[in-house]
Write a structure and sequence with these properties.
It is built from 19 helices and 28 strands. It is α/β, with parallel strands linked by helices. It has two domains: 232 residues, Rossmann fold, CATH 3.40.50; 273 residues, Aldolase class I (TIM Barrel), CATH 3.20.20.70. An eight-stranded mixed β-sheet has the order 2-1-3-4-13-12-11-8. It has an eight-stranded parallel barrel with strand order 14-16-17-20-21-26-27-28, surrounded by nine helices. Strands 22, 23, 24 and 25 form a four-stranded antiparallel β-sheet that branches. α10 packs parallel to α11. The structure holds ligand 1PR. The site of ligand 1PR has 30 residues, from β14, β20 and α13. InterPro entries: Aldolase_TIM, Class_I_gatase-like, GATASE, His_biosynth, HisF, IGPS_HisA/HisF, IGPS_HisHF, Imidazole-glycPsynth_HisH. This is Imidazole glycerol phosphate synthase HisHF.
Amino acid sequence: MVRLFLLDYGAGNVHSIANSITKLGHEFEWISHPDDFRKATTLVFPGVGAFETAIEHLSAKGLLQPLRDYIDSGKPYFGICIGMQVLFQSSTESPSVRGLGCVPAPIEEFSNEDKSVPHMGWNSIEFMDPEDTEHYEGMDQSSHYYFVHSYRAKYDESNLEAAQWVHSTAQYGREVFVASVRRGNVFGVQFHPEKSGVAGLKILDTWLRESESAQASAPTAVPRGLRPPRARDGLTKRIIACMDVRANDDGDLVVTKGDQYDVREKVLPAAASSSDAVQAKTAGAVRNLGKPVALAEQYFAAGADELCLLNITSFRHSPLHDQPMLAVVRAAAARVFVPLTIGGGIKDTVDPDGTKRSALEVAGEYFRAGADKVSIGSEAVYAVERLLECGGKGDGTSAIETIARVYGRQAVVVSIDPKRVYVDDPSSYPGPYKSELVYGKPDGLEKEKGKAWWYQCTVSGGREARPLSVVQLAQGVEKLGAGEILVNSIDRDGTGLGFDLALVRLVKQNVRIPVVASSGAGKAEHFVEVFEQTDVEAALAAGIFHRGVVQIAEVKAALQEAGIQARR
Ligand code: 1PR
């Protein structure tokens, strides 16, 4: 009898793989004891997070040697991300920790000289032996798969023994790295099939439906020699749909959306005419644009590359375990198979009974519920203020630092809400942000002409301004260990005027981690504009998608027409 086991070492979002496998109709059990390895006939290790955390947790739970024995026994093994990396000898992420050493090569960090690190997004793969269709394992050179990692195994044709393991490669910037390994009973992929939409589910399903003997008998690859980088890598620009979630006045969770963060329907001066009657009835109520899980499912089906759910009310009266948002995340994660970011309230909190919950615990609950990344807003601003007060060195206690240490920096997004501060006379502006001033263009918006401004950071959904510029914040959070920055614009939010290109460019030029442009998208061409005129990796929109003004497919088509790589 087939007994499929999943290995969870206790950190990161392993529920996504469980959800995918359930969705595909397979049954599984969790490895909870070293003896379970003996019962398993097939093992999937969906490693998420940091190499060191993975190895240490496995050792501490007495699972490392049984894992090694399982692999040596010849029974089928499928490792994902860190589950593939542990097969290697070592990782420069944690030099003191040894991997399983099946593949005699190191895992090293990507260079950020010519690109953002982490490598985050949908990339293509290239088989080592395209003729060997029998061992594609459901993978496809015309598909894109979701990668999220800072460390990789370089493709090194001179290391013949390691090259015999390589099944496919991918390219990021000029670096060609190992995307999958396949030999004997072992299959490992650097990307996340459980987050790679239909194309990823196909890989899992193909592998799980293979006979045990087919799973356990891939031939040793014949090393194929040099694989020089192509002119352009296969990474696509990501399109993200964002849902602001809050309780309405009846206590139901709804997706809402405001203009410049005011989510209540406008109150009319006087509901004079009968045509205003409906509007008058809803005036002042929280704008209701749909149910979060249903919308998430809809956006997944429509081709969104990633989804973002922001909890914009704090649910102060619920203990952490009963946070209504957790139920939303669980339900969404069971239905959508692309990355899910959760934001709002990722900070140290206190349950109604007085129990203290650290930001790390809060994030952990969301990861276990099925979130892939958490997004930190206000807390990030306070953390950078402390960082600057302490002379630019983090004390290790901030939410960014603690979460990145355990779950890896790729799991930590910082969502920033800057606001323009106009300067009366730029030529004589003596302020501290002179080098960050942006000047309105003669061919720009009417209200920007002849003006200059800098961007000030805010907290509490834009309600409070802080003495920090956007550049200080962006550089500070990168230093603290954030893996990505989501740049909102309070001035552009909900306006449909297009992304604030100057703001996005300013942030992008000052960091080496991926940046997501947000706020102001009004038509498909705005996405083309932001990718042509800035180097951001992704663009996010809310209002136009919720209101059906623009479909995600239209955005993708516009990008492809403009020669910008997009996932279809
Ligand atoms: O401070 O860590 O609890 O995080 C709170 C998070 O919730 C922050 O990311 C903050 O931006 C967000 N937030 C707080 N209040 C609101 C609100 O609307 N009242 N939503 C709010 C912010 C704006 C964007 C929006 C883009 C694109 N939402 O995320 O999705 O501007 O909109 P558009 O395409 O319609 O222009 P913490």
